[in-house]
Structures are given as C-alpha cells and as structure tokens.
C-alpha cells in the first residue's frame, strides 16, 4: 500500500548511509502517526564489501509491515471504505474519515562501485520493491570525476529510471469487470537527473551544490483517495469519485550542503533544498545536525528539519460544485509546513561493533504528528 503512506513515512524508510568499508548494518525502525494513522515496523540489513581498492559491492534489504488508516471521503451507505463511491449521494451520507488498511513491502537494492586509475568512480545500481498492489524496479548510475589530482573538488553526474506498476480497482464502465473485484494494471515511470559539485574548503569543512530534474509520467493518482464533485445545493447531492491527477509532472530544484568541524569533537551539518514543479508545488527544506563526540566511545546527534510547501493547483478539500478534469483531497498536496526534531546516540562497544539508537518527532501543520525510533548495530569486518 505504498501509495497510502504519508511523505514522512516514506522518507524515514530510507536506509542509513555509511562510509565505504567492509561492514554489516542491522536496523529496526518503528514509526507511528497520531490518531491511529500509519504505523510501520521495518527491519533492514545492509552489507558493504570492498574488493581491493577498486571495487565495492553494497546490498540492502528491508521488510515493512504497514497498517493504519487513510483519511478520505466515502459514501457511508456503502460502508467505510476508500472504494465506497457513488453518484448522486445525499450530502448527509458523505463522510470524511479514516478507512483501515494493512500491507507488507519487501525491497532490495544492489550497488556496485568501480574506481579507475585516476580514482574517478562509477556506481551502477538496481532496486526492486514489491507490495500487494505496487511493484517498482529502478536502474541507476552515477559518475564522479575528480577535477584535480589533490582530490579537493569533484563533479558528479547521476541518473535513475523507475518502472512502477500499480494495481487499481476497476470502476464501473471500465474495461475490466468491476463486479468481480478485479484490478487493472496501471504504469508510472520516473526519470531523475542530478549534477553535484563538491569542494573541500579547508581541513575542517566542505560544501556541495546539486541541481536536479524529475519527470514523472503515467498513473500518478492515489487509487485509495476520493473527492466530492458536482455538489448540487438544490438537491443536496454530490458525486463521490476517485481522485484524478495529471498524468505528467516535471520538477526541478537545487540543494546545498555544508559540513564544518567546529572543534575536535563537534561538527555541524547544514543543508537547504529548493523544489518546484508544474503542479504548482514549491517547497523549501532546511536541515541542520550537530554531532558531539564524547570520549572515544560516544557520539551524540541533535537535529532540526523544517519543511514548507505550497499546494497543488488541483488540490481541494471542499465539495466541488463542478466536475474539473483534475482534483485531489490528499493533504500531502496541500499548503503546509512541518518540523522534525531529531536525536541519535552511537556507542562503540568495541572498535568494530557500534550500536545506535535514535528518537525523532515529526509535527505537521495539518494536524498530523508522528514519532519514530531507529535502533540497531553496525559491525565492521
């Protein structure tokens, strides 16, 4: 049920990155939203292996158990379901509330790095994700070229292409048999391009600047969300139908990162990201983390992330008096801001065995909040 996850739920499922060396990392994430919304339990494993100095293989696997409820409109005479849709529904029978769901997701990824004689790097990768109604295959590649022999600056070019298949429940008058409960397969593809410039400023700081472009094409709607159209004040009726989004989206943006070692045991990580697309969504993300090393065994992290975005041109949570081509009531397309409070501690049990535990709290202006825990260990071999 990937299309039902909130944006933050999808974000925190991304595996933690690590420096290139031989290691195995095992993590467990528990994510819970307020009001019995999305809940995710996700164990994961990552293995990184160097083959000499020129080749590195990275493999990861995650298994998610997802449950909860999505907010949407529905025809209460047909039961509380995302598929409780009908036309000419009495306004008194149209409800907005949580409809339950549950699903599991299995996802795996492989990345292979090759380093050439000039120490330039080529990374090629693939990943696959499977759910009961969503399948995704991604191919990716990135080339990093060192601009000087001192390795103080570089430029990287990366690209990925994602093939997605979504099973959408058949509606009346569709080509498949809606009465059988069958689903039809819809496709959606995504192209991502990115260029990054890296610069070592001095012995204690570096900066990165990236530009990116995203092109989505295909079925981009959420099959579990409904809208209310053709609201007739005179008859007090309306149509509860599935949302419909444009089948194309183009986006671009920039991202800046700055890392500075303030003292021998304290460092600061800052980043800013700007995003804009042709759905009229514009966003700004400010991220900051401070790391403090206590002795030789403890590393503490405190962080703050602030996010704000404008709403999509076709977003509306109101009853629509007309029948527009595109409409969505998904709050993730609305105008909102959010703050994430982050904390984490690493403890080195031995030189090669490191444990970690993190607590994060997410607060969104729409009324959604969530807390998630990350715990695990990393073993260098």
Quick take:
2% of the residues lie in helices and 65% in strands.
Folded structure, characterized:
With 381 residues, this protein is mostly beta strands. The chain is 2% helix and 65% strand. It has one helix and 19 strands. A hairpin with a 4-residue loop joins β17 and β18 (353-364). It is elongated, with a radius of gyration of 23 Å. The two termini are 37 Å apart. Residues 2-19 have low confidence and may be disordered.
Based on the model shown, name its key terms.
Porin, mainly beta, 16-stranded antiparallel beta barrel, 19 strands
| Element-level helix/strand string | HEEEEEEEEEEEEEEEEEEE
Low-confidence segments, ≥5 residues, pLDDT <50? 2-19
Biggest sheet, spatial arrangement of strands? 1-2-3-5-6-7-8-9-10-13-14-15-16-17-18-19
- Gross morphology is elongated
Structural class, from helix and strand content? mainly beta
CATH homologous superfamily placement: monomeric porin ompg
Strands, count: 19
- Indicate the CATH architecture: Beta Barrel
CATH topology (level 3) name: Porin
Number of DSSP helical runs: 1
Task: Report Rg.
Answer: 23 Å
Per DSSP, what share of the residues sits in E-state strands of 2 or more residues? over 45%
Mean of pLDDT: 92
**Domain module tally:** 1
> Biggest sheet: strands, sense, closure?
16 strands, antiparallel, barrel
Termini, distance in Å?
37 Å
